[in-house]
Structures are given as C-alpha cells and as structure tokens.
Design goal:
499 residues; Type 1 dockerin domain; ten-stranded parallel beta sheet; three-stranded parallel beta sheet; 21 strands
Length: 499
C-alpha cells in the first residue's frame, strides 16, 4: 500500500512538471470498499483491490492473529493436551507417551529410541560373553561340565575313567592291568571307539561286563581276566569282529557262552577258564583261526560239539574240569596241529577214538578221570612226541596194545582202569593198579596177578590194592581157597623168599 502511495506521489510530481495539457493514467483500485481504494486511480485494475484479513491486515492471510489451535483471533481456549483435556498442557514425549519422561523408550545408553538393551550379563548392547561359562551357559558356573571339561549336550572329547581323562580321538591303547582298579567297569568306556587294545586284567573289578563294550569295534585285544566280574558275557561281544585275543578267565561269569561268539572269526586266542559258564555253542566251530581254546574249570555241560573239528589251527584245547558228557567226537582227529589236549575230569563216555592217532604233534594227552570205556587204540603209537600220556581213572578194558611203546611218554599214567595183562614190557612198571576182575585168563601160576610169569613185589602191591579196593579176582588167590585176603599175601611173600 505504501508503495502504491509512493507511485501516486511520483505521478503527481511528474505531472506538475509537465505541461498542464498532458494527463497521466493512474492504475489501481477504484472500489471504495477495498482497503486499497485510491480515489485518484483513473484506470481500474481489479487485482489491485485488496481486502482486510481477519487480523485487520490489508491483503493479509490471517496468520498474524491465529492462535496455537489454528483459530483466527483465537485465545487458545480450544487447545487440548495429549490427554484430550483442553488446556491441560500435556504433550507426548519422544517415546509417544503422554506426559512421559522418555524413560519407556530409553536405550541402555539413556538415549530415547536408541534400541540398545542390556545383555544377560548386564552389559549395554553386549553379546553375553562377559558372563558366559566354559560350556556357553550365560551366568553359568560350569556345573554342566564334567571332570574332563566336556559339556552336557556337546560332542564328547574325553572319557573319564578311574580318575583319568582319556581323549576319545587319540586313545588307542589302554593298559591298566594290575592297577588296583575297583568297582564296576564304567559304561562310558564304550565311547573310546578308537581303542585297539584294552587290558584290565588282575584288578578288583566287579559287576557285569557293560554291553557298551560292543561299541569298541576296533579292538583287537581284550583282556578282563583275574577280576571278580559277574553276570553273563554280553551278546554285544559279537560286535568285536576284529578281535584276535579275548581273555575273560578267572572271573565269576555265569550263563551260556553267547552264540554271538561265533562272529569273532579273527580270534586266535579264547581264554574263558575258571568261571561258571555252561554249554559250548556249536557256533564256536566258525572260529577257524583259533589257536588257543581254553575253557577249563567251568560248569560246562552237554556234549563236546562236533563242530570243534573245524578248528584245524588249534594248538591248545583245554576243556578239563567241567561236566561234559557223551563221547569224544571223532572229528577231534581233524585237529592235526594240536600239541595239548586236556579233557580230563569230566563225565565223558565211550571209547577213545582211533582218530586220536592223527594228532601227531601232541605232547600232552590228558583224558583221565572220565568214564571212558573200551580198549586203548593202537593208533596211540603214532604220538611219538608225547611226554604226558594220562589215561588213569577211567574204565578202559582189554589189553594194552604193544604200539603204546612207540609213543613218547615212557612212564604213562594208566592206573585205576580195567586193563588186562599181559602188559607190554615197555610200560609194565607203570601200569599201576588195575581192576582185572573182568579179564578172561589168569597166569598159570597162582599169585601172578600182572600175568608176567613172575611172582614178585608188583604182584604183592597189586593184591594189596585189590583187597583194599575190593576188586580182586581169582588171579590173586594164592592159596586157592577162593578168598583173597591176608593169607594170600603171606603165601605170596613166602613164595618170593623161597624162590
């Protein structure tokens, strides 16, 4: 408006300086109602006509008198707080909370809406590392860690056995024989899957053999002998197909030998002596690499399985001191590499098979204290390497074959049988006491008990034994009174003294 006035004044000044005959047009607003009305305007310009705004400003936009609520000429009386109460004056904080103090969205760094929080250790924007234990447990105290530093739920690195930690990956041999170990064998031993040798013999271990022993499939040598282990041999033992040596002797193991033993086809040695095991499974015949099979002093019953004849690499076969019955299988003659055969102190019956003569490498043949019958086979003479021939305390009958002089033992043990004279000269001094009551003939000379045509001290000894054991026959009836007693002995002594 002031500019318009200035323009008009200039125009008036200009016109006063010119010739009065020349008039200049004045442009502007000719509307009297307009706040920009100019009576001197000669040319009407509609856009120059302005109106007062509500604030009283010519050409204004009401901004100079609008209150905080956007009301022209208002007094802010329509203003409501964030609580929707007029003039409460309450506003939202930076967290969007009415009348808040920004605390609800403060980060752990005290900055609103920073998004930073405390970790479980109480560290702002932390990663829990400052209070995580060795097992990764926040605020833990390593309670989930075992003695070797392994954590629950994590892959094991060590196995804790008898106060020591053994690395699962690198432990391949465990020699703890004669180490004073007590208690049970921990099942965790099954985690040492790289073991090739486990030797725990000669300790004081008790309880059962853990089934987890079957996890040790790399074992080639397992010896748990000379302990106090009880229970049955676990069938999982059959998983150990790489075993070449298995020793469980001198324990208190019971039950049958598991048929799974037949899986151990690489075995060369099987020692199960001095337990309380029963029965020999026929599957033992699959162990064709066996060289040493020792099962004495158990409670084995039943017959010796014929499949044992498959074990042609056997050097030792010890089945003595059991309760085995039946006959000695003829298949025993297949074991041509045997050097020691011990079947004594059982309840074996039948004859000694002639196939025994195939075992030409034998140096120990021990069949005593059974119930064997029949004659000693002449093939016994093939056993030229024998140093111990022990057949005593059976029920062997008939005459001793002359071929016995060809075998290696010059003083065999033959007593307590029913062997009949005459006896081969090579062993007549070692025949010992025989029950000759079933022998067909006596010597022509009364009192010649051993039928060697000589009455001597041997006849006296034989007569004394037959009187004491009550199995005398007429061969000892020196005086012909059909009674064998002290009178016969006296007459026998007199005969010797006189002749």
């Amino acid at each position: 408006m002031k500019n318009l006035i200035k323009i008009l004044c200039l125009c008036l000044f200009w016109s006063s300086c010119e010739s009065p005959t020349e008039t200049e047009d004045v442009y502007g607003c000719t509307e009297p109602s307009s706040c920009s009305y100019d009576p001197d305007v000669t040319v009407y310009v509609p856009s120059s006509c302005l109106e007062l705004d509500e604030c009283g400003e010519c050409g204004g936009d009401d901004s100079t008198c609008t209150d905080e609520c956007g009301i022209v000429n208002g007094d802010n009386s329509t203003f409501s707080g964030c609580d929707d109460i007029p003039n409460s004056g309450l506003v939202n904080d930076e967290c969007g909370i009415c009348d808040g103090d920004n605390s609800t969205c403060l980060g752990c760094d005290d900055v609103p809406n920073s998004g930073l929080v405390l970790d479980e250790c109480g560290e702002c924007d932390g990663d829990n590392s400052t209070c995580t234990d060795d097992c990764g447990i926040v605020n833990g105290n390593n309670q989930s860690m075992d003695e070797c530093g392994d954590c629950d739920g994590q892959e094991l690195v060590y196995v804790y056995l008898w106060g020591e930690c053994y690395n699962i990956e690198t432990t391949t041999q465990l020699y703890l024989y004669s180490s004073g170990l007590t208690g049970e064998i921990p099942s965790e031993i099954g985690n040492l899957t790289n073991l090739t040798t486990l030797d725990l013999q000669n300790n004081q271990l008790t309880g059962e053999i853990p089934s987890e022993i079957g996890n040790l499939t790399n074992l080639t040598y397992l010896d748990l002998s000379l302990n106090q282990l009880t229970g049955e041999i676990p069938p999982e033992i059959g998983n150990l197909t790489n075993l070449t040596y298995l020793g469980l002797w001198n324990n208190e193991l019971t039950g049958e030998i598991p048929s799974e033993i037949g899986n151990l086809t690489n075995l060369t040695t099987l020692h199960l002596d001095n337990n309380q095991l029963t029965g020999i499974p026929p599957e033992v015949g699959t162990l064709t690499n066996l060289m040493y099979l020792t099962l004495p002093s158990n409670q084995l019953t039943g017959e010796i399985p014929s499949e044992i004849g498959n074990l042609t690499n056997l050097i030792y076969l010890f089945l003595n001191d059991n309760q085995l019955t039946g006959e000695i299988p003829v298949e025993i003659g297949n074991l041509t590499n045997l050097t020691e055969l011990r079947l004594y102190s059982n309840q074996l019956t039948g004859e000694i098979p002639s196939e025994i003569g195939n075992l030409t490498y034998l140096y120990d043949l021990n069949l005593h204290s059974n119930q064997l019958t029949g004659e000693i086979p002449s093939t016994i003479g093939n056993l030229t390497y024998l140093y111990n021939l022990n057949l005593h305390s059976n029920q062997l009958t008939g005459e001793i074959p002359e071929e016995i002089c060809n075998q290696g033992d010059t003083s065999p043990s033959l007593y307590n049988n029913k062997l009949c004279p005459p006896y081969p000269e090579c062993i007549e001094d070692y025949v010992g006491t025989q029950d000759t009551s079933e022998c067909e003939e006596c010597s022509e000379t009364n009192g010649d008990v051993n039928n060697d045509n000589i009455i001597d001290i041997l006849d006296i000894v034989s007569t004394v034994n037959c009187i004491l054991l009550d199995y005398c026959n007429e061969c000892s009836d020196m005086n012909g009174d059909e009674i064998i007693d002290i009178l016969d002995l006296v007459q026998m002594v007199n005969y010797i003294l006189e002749n």
